[in-house]
Amino acid sequence: MPLTNPPVSADELLRLDCFAGETREAAEWIAGRMQIRAYEAGEEFVAEGEAAHHFILILSGEIHFHSPRMEALVVVSPGTAVGVLPFSRMKTWTARGWAAQPSRAAFMDVEDLRDLVYRAPILTQHLVSQMMDRARQFTRMEEGTHRLLSLGKLSAGLAHELNNPAAAAVRSSARLRAVLAQKRQFTLSLHSEAISELAERIFTELADSIAECVGNPRGDTLEHADRESQLAEWLDSRGAPSELASGLVDAGISANVLEPLAESTSARSFSLALRVLAADYEILCLATEVEEASRRVSDLVHAVKVYSYMDRNPMSDVEVEQGIDATLRMFQHRTRLGIEVDRRFAGGLPKIRGNGGALNQIWTNLIDNALDALDEVPTTAMRRLGIRTCLEPEAILVEIADNGPGIQPDVQERMFEPFFTTKPVGDGTGLGLDIVQRIVREHRGTIRVESQPGRTVVHVRLPLEPVRSEIKL
Prior knowledge:
This protein is an alpha+beta fold.
């Protein structure tokens, strides 16, 4: 990265947008304190974590920046200032930069920035405005990355939760198709037999009794096994297929109720009738399984709609406990892994006016942090997530607690700072609690944390008074 000569000229600086309206005298003073550096395409401009010692103007080419905390690429074009700007508290580079094409940049030592403020007030105004715009842009990008990370976690868990009932429905429906085909064959064969009216009436009564006992528990396992063995022996003695004994016992059919049918039909007709009865029972059971699996999928979809406030106005009357409950459903794939969820809802809480989706963002971040803390507790020990709500005279109080290792005092002092995180790179953006605090404040609420080894509690108070302004994430 060699320095090039001659140094930047005042004329070149005055052609930059950020120097619009600035005096030549100021441009000449700045030019005299700058050094030009040239970069080849692909050459490193700055390393992440490197100390920031210069105010830099991009003169030509294009510089790209990327940080592990951001998915998007920041493109810097000629006329843009980077590095330490007037009144900036920047100490280190938080992103890696490189030249996307042959580029030139002018560097000024930070020691000269104090004089620049007085000698070039118009440029300083442009730079401060640019710094504020850049801070807002980076914050939006980081928040977007944070939301994508949260969405990724929830999507993975939701996909797992949906997969189980969906797979069960697929299996049951496939088996149902096969059993229906078998029953059709058995029924056609049975109709070709000569069956008395008495046998037909007994067969109908047995079929009705099967419909009534679907879903009934088996009872004692040993007793069930004894009944199955006894029925299998009885079927053998009647020349009927003994392999049907298990299904018939599950259907609540015993040798006593089958005896009249066996005596009033031929052995072939009796065997066919038993196969139809066993198929009827299996069809009813499979239909129940498909119904239950479909209900579970429907419940999950409903929870997602409640959580995301799909098809609803962002500003609405919000049921806080309903939002917390829907958020817990999003984390069910984690809470069922040995974590006790202690819900203590007051019930009957009044609705509050607010942004339901934003409030669910609060519960998402706080529950996610609590579960991360519980991941550090040995699986052999008790792991508890506690959620309590109660009505206060002027607010609703929500407490989210865990029995994890606790938060160190020095971390507690900084935990709500933007971009502060104790998680490894890629696992956290440091914006979760910053977003939580901002949403709570926008709802005119308060948030407080108490922590010691073995117990951490986050207290969120949301006022009952309506929120008049729109709340946006």
